[in-house]
Amino acid sequence: QVQLVESGGGLVQPGGSLRLSCAASGIIFSAYSMGWYRRAPGKERELVAIIYSGGSTTYADSVKGRFTISRDNAKNTVYLQMNSLNAEDTAVYSCNARRVISYWGKGTLVTVSL
After folding, report:
1. Which residues contact 4 (CB under 8 A, 6 or more apart)?
2. I need a labelling partner for 60 at 20 to 30 A (CA). Which of 5, 37, 83, 86 fits?
3. Cα–Cα distance between 5 and 108 in angstroms, integer?
4. In whole angstroms, what is the distance from residue 101 CA to residue 114 CA?
C-alpha cells in the first residue's frame, strides 16, 4: 500500500519560512519523480516544484529563488524549504510521487498571515 504523508504546514507570518516534508512508503522511492503541488482557495491546483529521480529540479516561476525542493532517498522523504513566504503562498500543499502511476498525499495547509 502506497502512502505519502505530508507534514510541516502551519501558520507563518509574511517573510517567514517553513519546511515541508513528505514521507513515502510502499514505493521504490529512488525511482520516482517527487513533486509538490498546491491549491489555493478558489484556484486550481498548480505545480510548485519537482525533483526527478536523477536529482534535477523544476520550479514554478512564482517560487523560483524562494523555495527549494530536495530529497533523501535513504529516508524515503522529499522536502520543500519555503523562504520569504507571502500571502499568495497560502494553500494546501500536496506531495506527488510519479513514475508510471501517480500517487498523492492528503496535503498540509500553509497559511501566511499576520
Report:
1. 22, 23, 24, 95, 96, 97, 103, 104, 105
2. 5
3. 9
4. 39
Q: Are 94 and 1 in contact (CB under 8 A)?
A: no
What count of residues does the chain have? 114
54-85 pLDDT per residue, tens: 999 999 999 999 999 999 999 999 999 999 99
Kindly give, in sequence order, each residue whose CB lies less than 8 Å from that of residue 5, ignoring residues fewer than 6 positions away.
22, 23, 24, 105, 106
Instruction: Output the CA torsion 107→18→89→80 (10° steps).
Output: -60
Tens of pLDDT along 16-67?
Answer: 999 999 999 999 999 999 999 999 999 999 999 999 999 999 999 999 999 9
The residue whose grid cell reads 536523477 is 54
Tell me the CA end-to-end span of the chain in Å, nearest whole number. Answer: 40
Cα separation, 105 vs 96, in Å, equals: 7
